[in-house]
Design a protein that fits this description.
Structural class: mainly alpha
Largest sheet: none
Number of strands: 0
Radius of gyration: 19 Å
Strand content: under 5%
Number of domains: 1
Number of helices: 13
Order of helices and strands: HHHHHHHHHHHHH
Oligomer: single chain
Distance between the termini: 37 Å
Amino acid sequence: MNAPAAAPSPSLTRAALWMTGWLTLMLSMAVFGREVTRELNTFQVMELRALIGLVLIYPLVHAAGGFRAMKTSHPMRHIARNTVHYGAQYSWFVALNLITLAQVVAIEFTMPIWTAVLAVLFLGERMNLWKVAAIILGLIGVWVIVRPDAGHVDTGQLWALASALGFGISVAMVKALTRTEGVVRIVFWMLVTQSIIGIIPAWTVWQPVPAHLWPYVVTVAFCGTFSHYCMARAMLHADATVVVPMDFLRVPLTAITGWLLYSEGIDAFTVAGAALILTGNLLNLRQAGTARVR
């Protein structure tokens, strides 16, 4: 019998390197996703992402024991989670072409708020003062960005908010799945389930992919498949309270990317709203880190 693999040693440097991979992949997915969905329907892009992702993830599946090791005792949980995730992902891609990259990512960071609420409601986690403060700050931050009192709410902002809510539900469901399932198995069933869900919607809008778009499509598939793997690897080398704040760099980096590539302006409301949302997340992380120490 093989000896169990030793747990990776704590290393801030390795965690930072894996998070650099995460940030690079997520920024690339936002840019290439916007470009490809300008010419191809979102349903087709998502179907290609899932199918190509299955090919790309095969080495990890093989290393984990092959397809036999991917067998699950909870197929309905995977189906439910990935149906929600599919809708959230569709909303995210739609939002990319309607509002600035900075606004999409800023609103996306409300995801931990929805995850916290759902974890309390359905996973039995406890609500406390820190979580309440994080939720209130996050909601105020969304209000500052969207500004419904201005008499006009951008449709793209609503798509981004729907995406964040969907991703929050998905994360809560993944959290329940991780009690019995490994990361590779969860990602494998995500790709299988979403490729099946997307067959009919993609077929109704399918068109030949122009040769110049294939690099974009493959990049979206690669980034969507391996970005979360980078995050998981970072978590092995450092606590979530160290790793997750690194992801906050995605807000200014995305804003800079939008400015450089698309000449997108960054208004004061987006900056203020993002600051409130990220402050709420930091409060929640600080509480989690304190609880762990105790």
